[in-house]
Amino acid sequence: MVVCGDDGLAHRLAAELRGVYGEQVTLVVPASERLVRPPVVVRARSASALLDRVVTRAAGRAGNGAGPVPTGEPPGGIRLMEAAEPSETALAEAGVERADALALVYDDDETNIRAALTARRLNPRLRLVLRLYNRRLGQHIEELLDQAAALASGGPADGTGFDASTTVLSDADTAAPALAATALTGTSKVLQTGGLLLRAVERPPAGDGVSPDPGLATLALLSPTDSAGAAGDQGPTLLPDAAAVRDGGGRATVVLEQVSYAGPSLPDGRGVMPWFASLFSRRLRWSLAGMVGCVVALAVALWVVTRIHPLSAFYLTLLDLFAIDDPAIGDSVGRQILQLLSGLAGLLLLPVLLAAVLEALGTFRTASSLRKPPRGLGGHVVLLGLGKIGTRVLTRLRELNIPVVCVESDPEARGLATARRLRVPVVLGDVTQEGVLEAAKIHRAHALLAVTSADTTNLEAVLYARAVRPDLRVVLRLYDDDFATAVYRTLRAAHPRASTRSRSVSHLAAPAFAGAMMGRQILGAFPVERRVLLFAAVDVGGHPQLEGRTVGEAFRAGSWRVLAREESGDAPGLVWDLPDTYVLQASDRVVLAATRRGLAELLGRRGRERAGT
Fold first, then answer.
1. What is the separation of C-alpha 561 from the centre of its chain, rounded to a whole number of angstroms?
2. What are phi and psi of 407, to 5 degrees?
3. Can you state the percent helix, strand and coil of the chain, rounding each to 5?
4. Which end of the chain is more exposed for a tag (fewer CB within 10 A), N or C?
5. From CA 568, how far away is CA 134, in angstroms rounded?
6. Pairing mode of beta strands 521-528, 531-539
């Protein structure tokens, strides 16, 4: 496996492929990354998982043909290679012509596309995994590269003899559902891929004599907690069997539910007004309402005094109001008094109408500018950061009709255009400055989601928000595992009754990229504390652990569990209520939940069989 990248995702992906799947990996990074990032790889997995990994470093300049010189590289080790860019020379020296898969995870889309085109020409049978932020462009590039592989190989790109598929993924799209769901529902997670909508729900321990509801399946037993509510060091138990669930008294569970969205998960928020009402301020709306009431009262009084038809009474009142009726000379005193009052009301109406016109013009003039949080807003999510991740999270929250207030320090951030298009309020300012979070109504917010690229900024925002609202639900994006663990435990100990979650985007995205490099479709991932459960669609044929076995026999505790079977024909879909006695056929395609090591074992055996043939 060859991994090329310039940020933390490349290192986490290399550690994933080596430590979980046991693959030989060549990691290509710019020279400036060599001394900064490798320690993170060591922390990405436990020491036992990476005990046999040896990183060999070789310096070279890929641009002029002087490449790395391996020094005693052991089989199965991670070879670290320096290259300023993934040029044809650098890819050739990395061994792309002999590799099974190549991951291009540079932060720049153009760099990944250019390298993918070069790699496809060097090795038409290569599996390609690209990191692209532009989803529409990614679909076209995926079709183009698959077509190039088919033409160069004289057969389909996904034929039985080889797998030269192209998969385009986005770390932002992979992590956004988990981040948004964590902010909305605490430990609940939502996964949506095509027509598939699942939710992982954390449930408290069942009482004595009460059997816990497993939902579609019990995904995990959470870490046992002490009397203070702090999580212990044992860690969660993923994919437990029935006996483990029964014996796990006192431990909360994470169960899988199939859901269909029926409304917003949060209240609409006090002060969220219809679009037409947002043209005018509340004071002006009350003034207009008072004038309407005054006109109605004058029309009723005219009807009572003159006994004319009610519609005529309203008509005459409006004429008097706008001073276009004839004077009521010769009429009764009551009619004359009402005419004077109507004229006076008309004089009062003129400044109200002028103010309405000016406010409407001002609203339309600033429609293309950023909105401010409305007065009285509550029950919303404060989203800190509108970069790549924040933009995807914002889109996901608005798809669920959740009120959001964004905070961004960069006036040129890429997510501001999305916020303007979605009419989402934005507060421009440095979150470390006093008054910025207050402007975002943090004291009435439901949750704070801090997803900037700076760990210290996210932590400072969370600590300040907790000082304002000790019970506020907070989710912060942290890259470093050791730092995230320390922050999580400290915040949980300081605020045991508040929901605190720390998430790493590369930590959530790396399993999906690694799974795609193994040649399988990864539907998504659910974080369980600091571990991850993968959901994959797998063909049963060729897997002796699945083929010819019943659903109950195919289940392996702590490794994988079959959840559903894809139906083909006129009404394709997923069958979730599979009985344990159903025998899996070679032609079946199933959706399963698996741990990282479980999926590595399931896919790795087939990979070795194919290598042997």
1. 25
2. -125, 125
3. 40, 20, 40
4. C
5. 31
6. antiparallel
Residue with token string 């103010």: 355
**Cβ-based burial of 332 (10 A; exposed 0-12, middle 13-18, buried ≥19):** exposed
Q: Which amino acid is at 470?
A: P
User: Between these two residues, 355 and 305, which has the higher pLDDT value?
Assistant: 305
Chain-centroid distance of CA 310 in Å reads: 59
Q: What is the distance between the alpha carbons of residues 350 and 279, in angstroms, rounded to a whole number?
A: 18
pTM over 0.85: no
The total number of residues written for the chain in this structure: 613
For residues 533 and 559, is the Cβ–Cβ distance under 8 A? no
User: 137's torsion region: left (phi>0), alpha (psi -120 to 50) or beta?
Assistant: alpha
Residues 157, 148: Cα–Cα separation, whole Å: 9
pLDDT band per the 50, 70, 90 thresholds, residue 308: confident
Residue type present at position 473: R
CA atoms within 13 A on the CB side of 371: 22
Mean pLDDT lowest for which of 147-156, 178-187, 405-414, 453-462?
178-187
Judging by beta carbons within 10 Å of its beta carbon (0-12, 13-18, 19+), is residue 237 exposed, middle or buried?
A: buried
CA angle 402/404/410 to nearest 5° reads 150
Contact 512/131 with Cβ under 8 angstroms?
no
- As a whole number of angstroms, the distance between CA 352 and CA 186 comes to 47
CA separation for the pair 3, 296 (Å, rounded): 75
Mean pLDDT of 103-116: 93
For residue 569, give the DSSP letter: S
Show the beta-strand stretches assigned E in 37-86: 55-58, 78-82
Q: Which residues fall within 8 angstroms of residue 7, CB to CB, at 6 or more apart?
A: 33, 37, 105, 106, 107, 506
| 581, burial (CB in 10 Å: exposed 0-12, middle 13-18, buried 19+) | exposed
Please state the φ and ψ torsions of residue 267, each to the nearest 5 degrees. Answer: -60, 150
> Beta 196-203 vs 237-238: how paired, if at all?
unpaired
CB 500 within 8 A of CB 447: no
Residues 6+ apart with CB under 8 A from 27: 3, 10, 11, 14, 78, 79, 80, 81
